[in-house]
Design goal:
It is built from 21 helices and eight strands. It is of the alpha/beta class. The chain has two domains: 370 residues, no CATH class; 118 residues, Transcription Regulator spoIIAA, CATH 3.30.750.
Length: 559
């Protein structure tokens, strides 16, 4: 029975939404910068996408916005196609997410193997960390979406580090790590960013000519032909992303461009679906509720489809912000709505003050996120304790994510995991040794009848191995009984392999009994083998029925 929404619940949702909004404010800007776009677009994402998904999504507690997992995917897109191309790819991703939700594919996303998820999320953490080192040290690098390229540039420019930027970044990082241990009811993100900003201003005042890099010094926007520093305090107007944004030229459409942005959109959709549904599962575990996966995909699709027309980059549900939302007392999706409205008010009324936030403070924030995503201790534990085959899949995904790209990592990881699944299932499927002293075995042996107990699913990876024993049946046997009581399913490969065996038995005039066949499998056999061949097979429900069936003349067999 649903609890009615009350004023008390509204107060709790407002408090939770405001708390998450405070946490999301620096995160949204930091993640936008990490994706290679101006910080205000992170705020636009948290505002527009966050509100739309809160209204239309399938989880009561998910809080959506820009997330760290997207940095690895979005940075190469923004560097190659600019903000215009990134927003257009987001629209494609939204459309794909919407189709996935309408096609009821919410449950299928959960089938991605756990070693694949751990491998690419840990790899994402490492990549994000590498990309933030230069901001923490105050070093200017040429744009690069490659870990190798970034590390190579850093190795040659370490002598150009800024002690002021580094000091501010390290101070921010220390606050992020140690302030939560004081158990004050204030978000550590807010305290750390305020502390870093205060130190940055103090250093600029104390040392002439020393000024750590800030949002205001690194980013600007144009109003009436005049370049202003920082981020605008107004919301963007509606605009078609592909028509050109932030003084960028419109996209020149071609088949190649559609393919590349379409592939980027597909990657955005798959990653967004995985992260959003995992986040919803975590929220369900914390609250004892149950989300609607297909509706959540529809909500994510609508958010990523509509919000880019207002300057928003890809959004998905964020586990950290969702957990904070729940811990702050959220009771419904109203809290996520309040989170978006809080960021909207902050942008409009305090936007000019956000330009003082140091870049090294935002880098420190992303470094902590990267560490949490990588989960080094958990990764090492899995390497030590998990089966070697799962470790191989996980490490492969990790290395491909770090040194190649996430799409390749997930593709190869799922392929390897699928191969291992087939191998394991083939090991489970087969014909286990029969107890030769059992009553049935003795009875059948006296009548020159062979009994085979099939075990496990007979699908393309296991059928040939499982049925190989049947190929050794001597042609002079009186009859053969195949026990299907432990066979849950059979695919086309299994049907064909079995058909070739019974054809050989029929050729040698050896009667065949199918014992304990499930109704669905019996129907599949009748369709696959045809009526004539199907009627040559005896069907029985127990061992005694098998012997009675074998004694019946062919003309009166009943299947």
């Amino acid at each position: 029975m649903k609890t009615q929404y009350s004023f008390d619940r509204l107060k709790r949702d407002i408090l939770a939404g405001t708390t998450v909004g405070v946490i999301a404010l620096p995160l949204a800007m930091a993640l936008a910068i990490g994706c290679g776009v101006p910080p205000q677009h992170g705020l636009y994402t948290a505002i527009f996408s966050g509100i739309i998904i809160a209204i239309t999504g399938g989880s009561r507690f998910n809080v959506s916005g820009p997330t760290a997992a997207f940095v690895v995917v979005l940075l190469p897109i923004s560097q190659k196609y600019g903000l215009t191309g990134l927003l257009t790819a987001t629209v494609f991703g939204g459309l794909i997410l919407l189709v996935m939700g309408l096609s009821q594919l919410g449950g299928a996303i959960r089938l991605i193997p756990y070693p694949v998820i751990v491998g690419f999320t840990s790899g994402i953490g490492v990549v994000i960390g590498v990309f933030q080192v230069n901001h923490l040290l105050g070093i200017d690098l040429a744009p690069s979406s490659s870990v190798w390229g970034t590390l190579y540039q850093l190795s040659g420019l370490l002598s150009h580090w800024s002690w002021a930027d580094t000091l501010v970044g390290v101070f921010t990082l220390m606050l992020l790590i140690y302030f939560p241990k004081l158990n004050f009811p204030i978000p550590s993100h807010l305290v750390a960013v305020l502390g870093g900003t205060t130190m940055s201003i103090w250093l600029g005042w104390l040392f002439a000519g020393i000024q750590p890099k800030t949002i205001g010094s690194e980013f600007g926007y144009i109003v009436n032909g005049e370049l202003l520093h920082g981020i605008p305090s107004t919301l963007p107007s509606f605009a078609f992303p592909w028509a050109g944004v932030s003084s960028e030229a419109p996209l020149e459409w071609s088949l190649k461009l559609v393919k590349e942005l379409g592939l980027a959109g597909f990657t955005i959709a798959v990653l967004g679906a995985i992260e959003s549904l995992l986040c919803a599962v975590v929220a369900d575990g914390m609250t004892g509720t149950k989300h609607n996966p297909n509706r959540e995909l529809i909500g994510q699709g609508l958010g990523n489809l509509i919000a880019p027309f207002f300057g928003a980059i890809p959004a998905t549900a964020a586990i950290a912000r969702t957990a904070a939302n729940i811990k702050a007392g959220a009771t419904s999706s109203v809290s996520a709505l309040v989170h978006g409205l809080f960021l909207l008010a902050t942008l409009v009324f305090l936007g000019q003050w956000l330009s003082f936030i140091p870049m090294s403070s935002l880098a420190a924030l992303l470094l902590l996120i990267a560490w949490n995503i990588a989960e080094a201790n958990y990764f090492i534990k899995i390497v030590r304790t998990a089966p070697k085959s799962d470790v191989m899949v996980m490490v492969t995904c990790f290395l491909l994510t770090v040194f190649v790209d996430m799409v390749m990592a997930v593709t190869v990881g799922i392929g390897l995991a699928s191969f291992l699944f087939i191998k394991r299932m083939s090991e489970l499927s087969g014909i286990p040794p029969l107890d030769t002293e059992s009553v049935e075995a003795c009875q059948f042996r006296e009548q020159n009848t062979l009994l085979f107990r099939l075990q496990g699913p007979l699908f393309f990876g296991a059928a040939q191995k499982a049925l190989s024993h049947l190929e050794l049946i001597e042609p002079n046997r009186h009859s053969v009984i195949l026990d299907f009581s432990m066979v849950p399913l059979m695919d086309l490969t299994g049907l064909v392999a079995l058909e070739s065996i019974i054809d050989r038995l029929f050729m040698n005039q050896v009667p065949v009994v199918f014992l304990c066949v499930a109704p669905k499998l019996k129907k599949k056999l009748s369709v696959a083998y045809g009526e004539d061949k199907y009627r040559q097979i005896f069907f029985a429900e127990d061992y005694q029925g098998s012997m009675l069936a074998l004694k019946q003349p062919p003309a009166v067999r009943i299947n």
